[in-house]
Amino acid sequence: MLKILIADDEAKERNGIERLLKEGGFDFAVTKAVNGEDALHKVEKEHFDVLLTDIKMPFLNGIQLIEAVQKLERNMVFIIHSAYGEFEYAQSAISLGVLKYLLKPIDVGEFGVLFREVEQLCRKIEHEESQRHQLEEDRAAARHFRMERQLLSLLEQEGDAHEALLQQILSAMPEYGQACVTPVLVCDRQGTLPLYWDVLLSKVDTAFGKDAFCLIHDETQALVLLFQARKTRDTARLETVYKTITNSMRQQCRLDLMVVAGRTLPGLAELKFEYDILNRQQEYQFFLSGSAVFFHDRDYIFSSDQDMMPLMLDRVYNSLSVGNLSEARGELEKVFIQVEENIGFSPIYIKYIFTEALKQIRHIMGQDIRLPEVVEKIHTARSFDEIKKQMRLAMGALLHGEDESPAENRVVKMARELVYRHYAEADMGLSYLAEKLEVTPAYLSSLFKKDTGQNLVKFITEYRLEKAKQALRESNMKISDVGARVGYPNQSYFISLFRSREGTSPAQYRERKYVEK
Questions:
Q1: Phi, psi of 230 (to 5 degrees)
Q2: pTM score, two decimals?
């Protein structure tokens, strides 16, 4: 319904115009103002399509009112009705773009003709405004998509290619060269984030508005980039916001999220380095329960580094349990680095933790070493370098055989078959597969990567998208139905994921393939 504001200091005039509109069957919602100042206040608070105003009013006359409204850049139709037909008023009205100068008393026939014209003009303005807004939205969406593709590529490029792409982004969008950015990784170990993508976007938008940029990295992970003018971080406020989001997602969607927040960076140049750190941190999510929020430069996953040591050693044990021996050695080296970078560990604690680690490693590998002798050397070590030497020697003695287990290969094969059969189920992800195969998600993830060299979540995504492309090529199914058919019932998530991986929307992909035929 169109909206009209009638400004007149005489009640009978306001009510008379309202009655004429109703009797003429014109589709207007009427608001009345008792003078020019009252009318201006109403225009400042509310949108109107038409302003019909008297000239002689207290505080602000009709001409002054129209001038004030025009300064607010409101796209309205202006009509003046007045008993004063002097030339100077008519001249002022014409210069202000007033549609009609309507003299009192109003002629009913003239009034009807005028408002039929006003209705058509308002509909035309409404249509043009709608087209303009749609064009702006399309441009913003295209810009967002282009930026999303470039940022995702920036996270994957190395060396000269990374630097070239960075300069390309800053050249096309120089405002990002002026802004500081805080990367925040949102992780879902259950693999059901695609179902609730719109809910997460809504909560991020409520919390941060246009300053937040959300990227889909894979089905278990979203990267939120917070852009700001200054390199400052209100950690307490951000922690409260992140916890509010995770608690709300748990209550509303029964989804446990792990949020790992990075440092506030002076620009995009350091984004890849910071993202790689965050990504390594999120690998520990399988050893956590419930939702969690961390600032990696403050918490390094846990509030004390001593709490983190058992978790890091769990990754060593997990790699060993799936037979990934090179990864186990790499994880052990990370433990060494953690100790070296944190001077708060006591010598007694360091010796204790590595002694217990040796016992666990021997138990997993089912091989014997001269444990008392190695433990004694660790206990009498005078430096951490000596402890590292003993651990490496012991690991070398235990890890002399790297035979793969046929049983483990069967688990990987069964995981693939489950993906092939159940990819259309929306909740089919890492946790789903692990439950079906009666193993832990961490074990299945490590085993799949060791055996295939590929990330399991990425494998699921790629298979689903291949099925989606096949459906787009071979059928006329609606885009939303294609998404639901391959396990993405949330249409906006499916379109965003498809574009981020294929460089085009599902609809554009279908059109291109149709033309190629």
A1: -115, 150
A2: 0.57
